[in-house]
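Table S2 (text version). Query chain:
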Amino acid sequence: MTAGPHVTEAAGVTTHGDAAAPAETRAGYDVDAGIAALWRQFADSPDQASRDRLVLHYAPLVKYVAGRVGTGLPTHVDVGDLVQSGIFGLVDAIEKFDPERGLRFETYAMQRIRGAILDDLRSQDWVPRAVRSKAKEAERAMERLGARLNRTPTDAELATELGIGLDDLRDFYGQLQLTSVVALEDLVAAGKDSGSLVDTLPDDDAVDPVAVLVDQDNRRQLAQAIAQLTERDKIVVSLYYFESLTLAEIGKVLGVTESRVSQLHTRAVMRLRAKLVEQTGS
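Corresponding structure-token output:
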């Protein structure tokens, strides 16, 4: 009489006759087989229940991609919002995936998830991408000039570095106005992992020595950066952020138009950001 397959389990090892495999390996095979079966079921009958089970299985991909995309974004961007956008990308990937093309689903899904997150971020940004790109280019040019000249570059020098006219540069400052509405809040965190200036203010009810030291250091760096601005830029920053004057009111103080004050404000913020990044990197 021939004996059938002999199955025993001991010390985490499952044996089938002479074959032996770790229990973890067998569990991996079971998961792979179950997902393969679920994909076949979804292909034959793409119902919501099967789709939801696939979404649940591949959900960690969304968290991974969202974490990668979120690196380097402003602190006000919530990774949870990125995950929510990525879920839509995952659902879209599941519904459009074609196994016959020979592409791994994980590879295909990560592209769709990343695309969905970026599309959602762009839809929330009221500033045109071209303006964002020009702003980055101007900041890099200002950093290069500052390092080369050992001082804050003038508008004429920055315009020459960018290869544009002085009037074009001032028009560009006007375009950047919306991008720097709350820029002073983020300046303290330039080049750091810390939060905004509001996050560093001491609690009125409890004095945290560490928070006090961090706040003093942030204020010192900001004061040093402001001290290196031109006299007119210092006045604009002081009146706007510390005296709470409107752009129109500042224009009356300086004897210039509100539009010109807006340009001066944008220029001052860009120079402050460049100085703070330089201080952090030194």
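Notes on Table S2: Confidence is low (pLDDT under 50) at residues 1-21, 23-29, 181-185. Residues 258-281 form the longest helix (24 residues).
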